[in-house]
């Protein structure tokens, strides 16, 4: 039991280091510092195992670190459960796999909702045109416009819609999808467990 607790603690600590590594890559001034290099040497070999997964890439966004962190979290939870006198069965493994899958999907949806909402706010602040909001808006648009229109076309069958309307439709659709996924996960877990 002691060894299982050590494994659980190690995976939790490693998850924290990987999370710090991810956050540091977002800060240009710190991503090339000595602490960032040390974290890269520790975390990148594991994180690189997930970088080639195509379905975790949307435009310029890479969600492979989310999968890497979810697997570390599941491993830590598994060892902790075993250390506390639990046992492993097929239902527990299936529940963990479903939990990881739904967690990644939910994180992706939440991220897109936030990104779409930021873009919608920028449009509402600058009412003249969605293109004149500056560099940040153009960067967001280049990453999300194809996804926004793909979602919006599903509901605006045959009608032309503005980018603002497409954003609103997409946000509502993703919020509904997020809610539906939570209900579906709860239902599936109640059947499995």
Would you summarize the structure shown here?
The chain is an all-alpha fold. It contains six helices and two strands; from the N terminus they run ααββαααα.
Task: Tell me what the structure shows.
This protein has helices at 2-25, 34-47, 64-83, 90-125, 135-155, 163-192, and strands spanning 57-58, 61-62. The model has no long low-confidence stretch (mean pLDDT 85). The chain has 6 helices and 2 strands. The chain has a two-stranded antiparallel sheet. It has 2 domains: 1-87, no CATH class; 89-193, no CATH class. With 193 residues, it is an all-alpha fold. Helix 5 crosses helix 6 (163-192). This is YggT family protein. One of its GO terms (cellular component) is membrane. Keywords: Membrane, Transmembrane, Transmembrane helix. Belongs to the YggT family. InterPro entries: CCB3/YggT.
Strand and helix layout:
Layout: H1 2-25, H2 34-47, E1 57-58, E2 61-62, H3 64-83, H4 90-125, H5 135-155, H6 163-192
Antiparallel strand pairs: 1-2
Helix pairs in contact: 1-2, 1-3, 3-4, 4-5, 4-6, 5-6
Keywords: Membrane, Transmembrane, Transmembrane helix
Family: Belongs to the YggT family.
Organism: Treponema succinifaciens (strain ATCC 33096 / DSM 2489 / 6091)
Which value, in Å, is the CA radius of gyration? 20 Å
Q: In terms of structural class, how would the helical and strand content be classed? A: mainly alpha
User: How many E strands?
Assistant: 2
User: What low-confidence regions span 5 or more consecutive residues with pLDDT below 50?
Assistant: none
Gap from first CA to last CA: 24 Å
**How many structural domains in the coordinates?**
2
How much of the residues is beta strand, in percent? under 5%
Helix content: over 70%
Gross morphology is: flat
Largest sheet: 2 strands, antiparallel
Summed up, the helix count is 6
Can you write the helix and strand succession as a string? HHEEHHHH
User: What strand order characterises the main sheet?
Assistant: 1-2
Query: pLDDT average, as an integer?
Result: 85
